Amino acid sequence: MDILVADDSAFMRRVITNILAAQKDFRLAAVARNGKEAVSLASEQEFSLILLDVSMPVMDGLEALIKLKEQTSVPVIMLSGDDDRKTIMEALALGAVDFIKKPTSLMKVGKKWTENFCLRLKAVVSAEESNEEQLPLQQDLHNLEDPQPHNKFSAVVIGASTGGPGVLLKLIGQLPERIQLPIFIVQHMPKEFTPSFAARMNQETNADVVEAADEERILPKVYLCPGNYHMTVSNGKIKLDQRPKLHGTRPAVDYLFRSAAAVYGNQLTAVILTGMGKDGALGMKEVKKRGGYTIAQDEKTSVVFGMPRSAIEEDAVDEVLSLEMIGRRLRRIVG
């Protein structure tokens, strides 16, 4: 897979060059030192993936992303520092598929960071290059009638990882002006970015979107789990805790889904969206076991089909729907 790296930091270019050189599946095809160079290179060569720094001279990452999306469908992953939080949220809304927080020093570039970096690159490129074969359960429901689910629902839970922020912004933007029940969201995201992401989602809808707080009383709002915490629900309140990571992540979708299944039973809707790994699959299974309604995003509209696929393979999914259809379903359920 040929990769274009755009970053004005010589340190970061060296780090990425060394990592890619050690991976047989990656090839550093070109390097740009600013957004203008990246846009020019993308117009002249074909790449499998573009890594784009947020803060660069001449043309910054956000302006470059807009121009890149106009001329190519190549997936773009943003490279960000702590000061880029609001810009990253805007980049995800504009079509960046993911973002990776840059290390602050060479000491921070350890085995764990490197493995995560490579996994996320592979997940995005593999999804882009995957064939069009559909799983047996998957259905193309784009043009089918939108039936009303049979249950009277009391809550919605949503889980997402890679590619999730952009998808969630689209779904939240389709909510009715007033929602009648709570929506709980777990998005795999570092703690530094969840406040900005909650605020960005809140801009997309008239419904209230907040970063969840421990012991907060549950109301008809959209609650985003803060980074580095697990979120569950109990006795009409939100519970946050820092028990060990599950599936290598905190927050974990499974903890939310299982607790909500126990509280809401057959009045719960669970949605698993794009993301790598298997988080949420067993939680979806518990929701379905208790009579809840379960939806997985389809492969065509997922950035990475790992989490939806895992839920499908667990026989935990009632329907596999496009992003457009999920938005229509949610609008009817919560309105």
The stretches of 5 or more residues where confidence is low (pLDDT under 50) are 131-145
Counting structural domains, the number is 2
What class, by secondary structure content? alpha/beta
Separate helix tally: 11
Enzyme class: hydrolase
Organism: Liquorilactobacillus oeni DSM 19972
Catalytic activity: L-glutaminyl-[protein] + H2O = L-glutamyl-[protein] + NH4(+); [protein]-L-glutamate 5-O-methyl ester + H2O = L-glutamyl-[protein] + methanol + H(+)
Family: Belongs to the CheB family.
Per-chain topology:
Layout: E1 2-6, H1 10-21, E2 27-32, H2 35-44, E3 49-53, H3 61-71, E4 76-80, H4 85-94, E5 98-101, H5 111-129, E6 155-160, H6 164-173, E7 183-187, H7 194-203, E8 209-211, E9 222-224, E10 230-234, E11 237-241, H8 253-264, E12 268-272, H9 281-289, E13 293-297, H10 306-313, E14 319-321, H11 323-334
Parallel strand pairs: 1-2, 1-3, 3-4, 4-5, 6-7, 6-12, 7-9, 8-9, 12-13, 13-14
Antiparallel strand pairs: 10-11
